[in-house]
Amino acid sequence: MDLFIVVPILFFSIVLHEFAHGYVAYRLGDDTAYVLGRLTLNPLKHIDIVGTILVPALCYMSGLPMFGWAKPVPVNALRLPSPRKSMGKVSLAGPSANLLLAILCAFVMKMLLVSHIFSVSTTEQILRFLIYGVQINVLLAVFNLMPILPLDGGHILEAILPVKAAMQYNLLFARWGMWIVLILIVTGVFKYILYPPMYVVVKLISQIFGL
């Protein structure tokens, strides 16, 4: 694993993920993240001890793909026009940002391959960086879309469920959801859940750009 390549990509990707949450909330009418100085791409504002440091370190030591998360951007649902529906949009923004970044990396890869503007060795180095960019961002998107609170997928599901079902779902996962996520990571079970959709999405992006 090219640690000195993976870590910067991972940090930028999870910071962009949280920035996207805050930006969409801001556009919808909640300036909480902006007022608190969290609507920024400065990684120091988003570092989470568990998600940004411990989990990536555990992945590295275990030989698992590097991924993690940043400190959640604060959002006040009551300041949004339609709290449940708007929170679904805010939650979807993070994974969407990662998928868009993965697509951008694939696009740049294609441009590099057809333009021949760099030497072979330089092109290979840039391509390795971009390949990690695609893989890490697709993994982050798939991971965060798992329907487990407090992940984005859990909040999206909460937003589309009927009110009563959403309340029951919240009661079930709000307390134990993060423990479930950590157990899936520590035991390595998560890779059997995430790898299949991750490979499908990466392959689809590759086919779109003819890579």
Question: How would you describe this structure to a colleague?
Answer:
With 211 residues, this protein is mainly α. It has helices spanning 3-28, 32-35, 49-62, 83-115, 120-144, 152-160, 163-173, 177-187, 190-209. Helix 4 crosses helix 6. It is globular, with a radius of gyration of 18 Å. The model has no long low-confidence stretch (mean pLDDT 87).
Order of SSEs: HHHHHHHHH
Pick out the low-confidence regions.
none
What class would the helix/strand composition place it in?
mainly alpha
Continuous helix count: 9
> What fraction, in percent, of the residue positions are helical?
over 70%
Radius of gyration: 18 Å
Share of residues in strands: under 5%
Mean pLDDT: 87
N→C terminal distance: 22 Å
- Main beta sheet strand tally, sense and closure: none
Structure, briefly:
It is built from nine helices and no strands. It is mainly alpha-helical.
Topology, please?
Blueprint: H1 3-28, H2 32-35, H3 49-62, H4 83-115, H5 120-144, H6 152-160, H7 163-173, H8 177-187, H9 190-209
Notable features of this structure?
single chain; 211 residues; mainly alpha; 9 helices; 0% strand
